Amino acid sequence: MSFLPELRDKLKENNTVPLLMKLTEVNFDKTQLHAYRALAVILTDNDIKQLA
Fold first, then answer.
1. Contacts of 25 (CB under 8 A, 6+ apart)
2. Rounded distance between C-alpha atoms, residue 31 and residue 23, angstroms
3. Cα–Cα distance between 52 and 39 in angstroms, integer?
4. How many domains does the structure of the chain reveal?
5. DSSP 25-43
6. Would the CA dihedral through 3, 46, 16, 27 be positive or negative?
7. What is the CA radius of gyration of the chain?
8. What is the pLDDT along the chain (52 residues), one digit of tens a residue?
9. Which domain range does residue 16 map to?
10. Which pLDDT belongs to residue 51?
11. Full-prediction pTM beyond 0.70?
């Protein structure tokens, strides 16, 4: 995803953060991993600080 800037931009535009945050809580390791990877690409440092 980090190699597809247009996909990253679409994820930001469509406000997918709440959905990705829910996916980090599922019981499937691969799903959690990919959700965290997507969040790492679309969140800014300030966004991450606000979540903490």
1. 32
2. 7
3. 14
4. 1
5. TSS-HHHHHHHHHHHHHH-
6. positive
7. 11
8. 556 888 888 888 898 999 999 999 999 999 999 999 999 989 989 988 887 7
9. 5-51
10. 78
11. yes
